[in-house]
Amino acid sequence: VQLQASGGGLVQPGGSLRLSCAASAFTLDYYVIGWSRQAPGKEREWVSCISSSEGSTVDLDSVKGRFTISRDKAKNTVDLRMNSLKPEDPAAYYCAARPVYNDIQVSTTAYDYWGRGTQVTVSS
Q: Are 52 and 72 a contacting pair, CB within 8 Å?
């Protein structure tokens, strides 16, 4: 079971990026998927999570209205669309899968499968 996070990069303040979390060997539909981020010297923050089937989401207050998490079932990915990026958003972003149907959690220990981080940099 492997997850791959991609889509990070360098963007100017106010810009946008789309991160994608892809899976090999299993279907993401059955898992709660969460995106978290960690900047150097800071604790991990859970940015956005999506339930297995209902489409329910939980979002960090500071990203509400700017970030959108969604599933692309055809591609078997969970994407994080990030708009209006701010100087406080740079971090390594990670996706993770929780194998408990529709039970969103924002705890690192609740997720069994992790992808490698993809770096987001916001700079002018």
A: no
